Amino acid sequence: MKLLHLDSSILPLDNSVSRTISSAIVEHFRKAKPDVTLARRDLVSHPLPHLTLTNLPTDHPHSAPGNEAERDESQAVLNEFMASDIVVIGAPMYNFTIPTQLKAWIDRILVPGRTFQYGANGVTGLAKDKRIIIALSRGSFYGQETPYATAEHTETYLRTVLGFIGITSPEIIVAEGIGHGPEQRAAALEGAHQSIAALSV
């Protein structure tokens, strides 16, 4: 089993809820399956540049020459994703959506002919075999019953983009309200750890 671990929080581990949760998810799998092969990509310490035609993965039909090093890195990101069985993504909500570092990674894995294709019946996702687990943190409360539900563009975006490439049931562990004081932060983390313990391996 190959597991890819991604983080996109600009905070260090000891102050980041999404990093704490994503690390706990990875540890959950490593304890259950010691032979798991782990790939690690920190999208903040090693950020990908914003997308251009010259740094698209070489497999992308619109990829253009001009920046071979960045093209090769983009292709490596795509290949790494395609080789993974499980992908764990640390995704904090920043300004109502995902961090730009995570968006840059997503831009590398949405590639026609590799992760999706168009046909007579519309779009077909080609990454159906992937298991995606998202560690999602939010400073306030954005559930359907809250006044801010329509401002939630992190979970909804990730579900949309993953569904586009065939991953229609990502597992999402949410810790929210973490900006509402230390007690709520601790409660959110405790709930997340309980959800991690219940993950099948």
In short:
The longest helix is centred in the first third of the chain and has 16 residues, at 17-32.
Strand content: 15-25%
Oligomer: single chain
Instruction: Please identify, by name, the CATH architecture.
Output: 3-Layer(aba) Sandwich
**CATH-wise, what's the superfamily?**
Flavodoxin domain
Into which percent range does the helicity of residues fall? 25-40%
Largest sheet: 5 strands, parallel
Mean pLDDT: 96
Low-confidence regions: none
Order of helices and strands: EHEHEHEEEHEH
Sheet with most strands: strand arrangement = 2-1-3-6-7
Structural classification: alpha/beta
Shape: globular
Give the strand tally. 7
Rg over CA atoms: 17 Å
Distance, first to last CA: 11 Å
CATH fold annotation = Rossmann fold
Q: What is the topology?
A:
Layout: E1 2-7, H1 17-32, E2 37-42, H2 68-83, E3 86-92, H3 100-109, E4 116-119, E5 122-125, E6 131-138, H4 155-164, E7 171-176, H5 182-197
Parallel strand pairs: 1-2, 1-3, 3-6, 6-7
Antiparallel strand pairs: 4-5
Helix pairs in contact: 1-5
Protein name: FMN dependent NADH:quinone oxidoreductase
EC number: 1.6.5.-, 1.7.1.17
Family: Belongs to the azoreductase type 1 family.
